[in-house]
Amino acid sequence: MEIQDNDLEELYAETFRSIEVGSMITGTVIGKSQEVVIVDIGYKSEGYIKREEFSEQEYNELKEGSKIEVIISRIKDSEGTITLSKRKASMMRAQNLLSDAHNTGESIVGTIIEKTKGGFIVDISGMRAFLPGSQYDIKPVKSSDDIIGTTSEFKIIKMNKKLNNVIVSRRALLEETLKTQKVETLTAIKEGSIVKGLVKNVTDYGVFIDLGGLDGLLHISDISWGRINHPSEVFSIGDPVEVVVLKYDEDSEKITLGYKQKKSDPWLNIEIRYPEGSTVTGKIVGIKDYGAFIELEEGIEGLVYISELDWNQRPKHPSKYVELGQVVQAVVLKVDKEERRISLGIKQLKPKPWDLVARNYKIGDTVTGKIRSLTDFGAFIALPEGVDALIHISDISWTKHIKHPSEVFKAKQRIDAVVLSLEPEKERMSLGIKQLNPDPWIKEIPNKFRLGDEVECVILRNSEHGIFVEIDEGLEGLIYDSEIIKADENVFKEGQRLKARIIRLDTEQRKIGLSMLNAVKERGE
Predict the structure, then answer these.
(1) Model's pTM, two decimal places?
(2) Helix count (H) and strand count (E) of the chain?
């Protein structure tokens, strides 16, 4: 049957009467051009959406068969054209979404797109909502720039009927979550229980752990059985952590936490693991003026006092023997379980210096050392083995009268000496330097000088016993006080030359006695 023009017009009119402007329907894309997108909406006429309602990406992604929600925007009966709007459909969908969320109190997802005065603008399915700055988080925001572009859940806290004033809050959801978490956390909190949390803050004295709605304090003393200088050596903000509840005060809701308590106390059975006299290996973890700390295992440190570092009677600073991080061996000297102290020794693994001296030297040997100190009675010589030997003042010179060793020696001076006596068991050793040369009193002096010889002398010093003079280089004699010519005009000064006669020559006592009177009488003066 052939359809007449008037029948066709009636058919179109009937179609358009069934379509309501403003209704939302789902259509299928059947084509697109640079001006419009053509959509089949299930009627006898297609609908058209202006190209400008699509972003470049949306337009490029459209394909034949793509489903799309639209609003019927306008119908033209004469031309048979249906104008559709994707934008209005999106707004209607967003309005419905916001309205439902506001009525039910459910959260809604949105993206923070820009910063504005007093807060931020949030895009919720194409609708713009205002997020006050105070409603973003529970704690103050450090940098608002990092927030732009983030997607979160929000709660609608205010909305008017026209949907042109929507205020949302992220903080409200966080507070609800924390309240729920707090109830769950309080149920799980019991002294001795193990709980999980996140490191919230790190301070000098400890770490604050977020347990879920409640914070607990992990004091630095409860972090490790061993040595730590700062909690940041173990934890960083945001670290997940498992801790033990040490104490919980229900009234103040204060929670004290422990981390080291997850492991047993390493000091239990310490005397069995480290018996006195045993040799142990550890790492140097601390150096002080009084000694060095050695970590034997996690939570166990021993102290080597400075006196136990070296056999030297005057040990150097501990840093001269060990350095941080160095692995060393030591001997366990004492274990005090109650005080949690272990005394260690390093020198005990080295040979005793006096044992080395007994092995390396014998009487009569020539040794080389450095002057360590000077006293009224002699000089102490430091030997390579780490011991001090004494040169008595009487063993410095065969002929010269030495009042103080400083007349001959200087501190740190390096000298040679002869071993005179050796008593390692008493830690004593005597040296002499005059013994490096033959004793001149045996042959040289008796052959050169005789009783009655007149000699020319140089005054060295005056004493209560007389005048000490130098007879020959390094050879001294004494003009007895009773043998001095005394007169008002005689003033004897150091360096003055005079003549005297030898009246005593004692090679055993190594002394020469002189007389001025005898010399004058012999010359007939």
Answers:
(1) 0.47
(2) 8, 30
